[in-house]
Structure formats: structure tokens, C-alpha cells
Specification:
With about 160 residues, the protein is an alpha/beta fold. The protein contains four helices and six strands. Strand 2, helix 2 and strand 3 form a beta-alpha-beta unit.
Length: about 160
């Protein structure tokens, strides 16, 4: 079935222990009806980010987890959108801005109801720390072009703008 393409193979090599105390979580929030979420360069930017974060996590002995959230009326439309942007380890689609996935993320980390959006946080021993929030294709592209720097553990980097 087509939805199976959404799920990535494990981002960790086979000889890596299955769990770490710390993991990076990257959440892409997009919409099949949002013009900027469907920008032709966005899938390539997300692939570059995935590769970079996998390398970063491996070098720092951390896990990494990629989540796709589609803000859509119909789950099938959202899943089709995420298929173009994936692969992801976990996906949620449907429910528009009232979806449980989006509301849970927003309750945990705050932030704007805007797409496209990339949220990166560190999950360390049950404690969550926001590292980065990028809103809009231009902000995502600028971060990639800058070499995808990550915040120092005791700081927050928040970048917002529009697509």
C-alpha cells in the first residue's frame, strides 16, 4: 500500500543499540492546501535536514526521530502530502488545526499555527527542550544554507517568519 512508503527504515545502523537516553525529534508540520507547504524545493530541503540530523545524532550517540504532521481536513490528503515530504518514523494527518498531534505538540512546546514549520527538540530522559522552530520555507532554507546549526543545550533558538 502507498502509505507504507511514509515509514522510514530505522535511522540507526543495525549494530547501534536500539535506544538512547537522548534523542533529537524533528517535526515537519505542513498542509496539502498551503502554497508554501507545497513549494517545489521543500522536499529536497527536508531530505538534506534528515541526512544532517541523522549524522549529527550518530556522532553524538543520540537517537533521532522524524515526525510528519499534516494539517488537513481529510487524513488521505494529509498522508499524500507527507508522502511527498517523507520518509517519517511517525505521521499524523487530518483534524485540521484541532488534530491531537498538533494540539499535543503545541501544548508541549508552544508555537504558532502556521505551515510549513519545522520544530526540532531534544528529548532527554523524559525532559523536553525546544532547540529550534522555523516557520516558512525561507526560514527553513536559510537554516539549511547556514549549515543547520543547533542551539547550545542551555539556549533556545526561535526563528519565525512566513513562507
Amino acid at each position: 500500500m502507498w502509505y507504507q512508503k511514509l515509514f522510514a527504515a530505522s535511522a540507526l545502523p543495525a549494530d547501534t543499540p536500539p535506544s538512547f537516553d537522548t534523542r533529537l525529534v524533528a517535526v515537519y508540520i505542513g498542509s496539502p492546501t498551503c502554497g508554501p507547504s507545497n513549494h517545489p524545493n521543500l522536499p529536497a530541503l527536508l531530505r538534506t535536514i534528515r541526512t544532517h540530523l541523522q549524522d549529527y545524532a550518530e556522532a553524538h550517540r543520540q537517537g533521532v526521530h522524524f515526525v510528519g504532521v499534516a494539517i488537513s481536513r481529510l487524513p488521505t490528503d494529509g498522508l499524500k502530502h507527507l508522502e511527498r515530504m517523507g520518509p517519517f518514523d511517525e505521521v499524523a494527518a487530518g483534524g485540521r488545526w484541532h488534530s491531537l498531534a498538533f494540539r499535543g505538540l503545541r501544548a508541549m512546546l508552544g508555537g504558532a499555527a502556521a505551515t510549513p514549520q519545522l520544530v526540532l527538540y531534544l528529548d532527554a530522559e523524559g525532559h523536553t527542550r525546544l532547540l529550534l522552530r522555523l516557520v516558512g520555507v525561507d526560514r527553513i532554507r536559510q537554516w539549511v544554507q547556514a549549515g543547520m546549526p543547533l542551539a547550545a543545550p542551555d539556549t533556545l533558538v526561535l526563528q519565525q517568519g512566513t513562507g
